[in-house]
């Protein structure tokens, strides 16, 4: 045993070292990730006179590479579309002695008849007002700079009419789905309206519970009377999360 220990002390055991190498893909930076979201449009920079500055002989292209990527801003612009409806006549019916049969190509109906407001223009005014909080009188100034002198009244009328014609049915359908959910939240918020006879008006907010897979948030404009909530939530049989406002007791 003593000899074995002496041998181990005299001849130390060497540790084996295993070298492991691997490659990994370098993660893209935030700037490159943003740039990749946009469709590229190549801009080629070529020599107008491809000749050698020394010997004056013609140069031969040997390659190209992208030196940088950048985003550009294209300002808004108005463009007039002329919808041309084409008419067609059936020659066979005419030659056979029948009355001439004229067929016209279908033309999509305008959002509002006899109005300067197209779908894209009205949608932009709604986005400006309700998403970016830009009032109608300021929008009027922007449209005038683009060459469209419309009034504040026209902008507001466009929004009221498209809500009545196209969005009200969607609102009521969402309301039916909302009151069938088991848990809802409700609250009323006062605010002041310019040029209004009433000192204050109210918006009621009704929304789904946070665990609902398809959350819905609806706004209802009216007075602060509890009957507003009772009418909106008629048929609701779940749990309502609200404050201690006495108006909810009417439900």
What does it look like?
This protein is α+β, with helices and mostly antiparallel strands and 251 residues long. The chain is built from seven helices and six strands. The protein has a four-stranded mixed sheet with strand order 5-4-3-6, covered by helices on one side. A hairpin with an 8-residue loop joins strand 4 (201-208) and strand 5 (217-222). Helix 4 crosses helix 6 (152-178) and helix 5 (136-145) packs across helix 6 (152-178). It starts with a helix and ends in a 10-residue tail after the last strand. The model has no long low-confidence stretch (mean pLDDT 88).
Biggest sheet descriptor: 4 strands, mixed
Low-confidence stretches: none
User: Number of helical runs?
Assistant: 7
The helix content, as a percent range, equals 25-40%
Order of helices and strands: HHEHEHHHEEEHE
Shape: extended
Radius of gyration from CA coordinates: 35 Å
Number of strands: 6
Strand content: 5-15%
Strands in their spatial order, largest beta sheet: 5-4-3-6
User: Class by helix and strand content?
Assistant: alpha+beta
User: What's the end-to-end separation, in Å?
Assistant: 94 Å
What number is the mean pLDDT?
88
